[in-house]
């Protein structure tokens, strides 16, 4: 005798396209209760998420569905988020520029440069029309829709966009006096200043 695994799913099918899974045993009462709760909008939607990274100390922070609120919706930070797909050629072409931008800005505590794989992670605030999608979430203003970043894909253009839209003003950090004169941060800042 063949055994089948069944899963009951409810799907809104409209613009927000939320999915809901029936948890627990597949009984008539559970299905009825699930349907009623779905119609009354009393269910918690399901969103895909990769595992939360054990460490996230690179210049570009890794966002997944389950840490999106903690990183992107942190009201004390201005956040630039790239939603990408690993197979996307435009995303691969953008990566060196995006990494360079994050490296230049890593000393600014109020600013987060982040990326999320849009093929394996979902969040209701991370809407993309294609890959890559760049969204800016200003500090203190996370309840509103993010700003879609529509600028040249250069370090200089991204920097100017961030200077213009950041809710918390920032400037490039000067190297600490304890660092060597040719430190990575100093040369990184000089590189950005040369580009600007």
From TrEMBL:
<dbReference type="Pfam" id="PF00085">
    <property type="entry name" value="Thioredoxin"/>
</dbReference>
<comment type="similarity">
    <text>Belongs to the protein disulfide isomerase family.</text>
</comment>
<dbReference type="GO" id="GO:0005783">
    <property type="term" value="C:endoplasmic reticulum"/>
</dbReference>
<dbReference type="InterPro" id="IPR017937">
    <property type="entry name" value="Thioredoxin_CS"/>
</dbReference>
<dbReference type="InterPro" id="IPR013766">
    <property type="entry name" value="Thioredoxin_domain"/>
</dbReference>
<dbReference type="InterPro" id="IPR036249">
    <property type="entry name" value="Thioredoxin-like_sf"/>
</dbReference>
<dbReference type="GO" id="GO:0034976">
    <property type="term" value="P:response to endoplasmic reticulum stress"/>
</dbReference>
<feature type="region of interest" description="Disordered">
    <location>
        <begin position="172"/>
        <end position="196"/>
    </location>
</feature>
<protein>
    <recommendedName>
        <fullName>Thioredoxin domain-containing protein</fullName>
    </recommendedName>
</protein>
<feature type="compositionally biased region" description="Polar residues">
    <location>
        <begin position="180"/>
        <end position="190"/>
    </location>
</feature>
<dbReference type="GO" id="GO:0003756">
    <property type="term" value="F:protein disulfide isomerase activity"/>
</dbReference>
<feature type="domain" description="Thioredoxin">
    <location>
        <begin position="46"/>
        <end position="167"/>
    </location>
</feature>
<dbReference type="GO" id="GO:0006457">
    <property type="term" value="P:protein folding"/>
</dbReference>
